[in-house]
Amino acid sequence: MNIVITGAPGSGKGSRTPIIEKMFNIPTISTGNMLRAEVEKGTELGLAAKGIMDSGGLVSDEIIIGMLATRIKESDCRTGFILDGVPRTIVQAEMMKAAGIKIDKLIVVEVPNEVIVARLSGRRVCSACSEPYHVEDKKPIQEGICDKDGGELVTRKDDKPEVIKSRLETYHSETKPIIDFYKDEASVSYIDANRPFGEAEKAVREAFAPKSKEMIK
Ligand code: AMP
User: What atom of ligand 1 comes closest to residue 85's alpha carbon?
Assistant: First the structure.
């Protein structure tokens, strides 16, 4: 099961992938997290990507697809994977197709723009494991500290208001067209993520449930 989860930045993709991981026992590959790890390590790739990421731009398609192609060769991806944040452009989707990466399922997480702005400006992430929190909706047990590994919670540089606006524009112009790209190849499901987080699991399960037509058969 090869899955792509897409949606605007801050739509809640990262909060939903652990639910899908457990359902299918497959890993999530987040190109954003991979890039942040490179920045953290100070690698050549990290140095090249940092400025682009901080300003909310997109890292080159070649770098992203090269990184992805290497990652999915690892043994934990044998039975499938969840791609979070990739493909981000039609060119990336085409490069993936050319590399033989077939997608079975596309999940589109939908949230109105104004909700996204409120969410992202209150988002905090663990500096060690990237686990997302929110200053009002998903507080850690101890303020400023990750529940999972005790890492320090920080605001991402690209969660500043002016950068959020530009990232949203990029999502609508560059990334949304991939929904059309996959409509024949993959089964497409939409998740309305403008609901209380407690309903997230139900919404994700519904997205994978057989269509009522198939259930009748
Ligand atoms: P994310 O955590 O998915 O929001 O990604 C953070 C940043 O990493 C993005 O704003 C981009 O600068 C970069 N990035 C992540 N994935 C991609 C991708 N597939 N294509 C281009 N840039 C990406």
Answer: 3
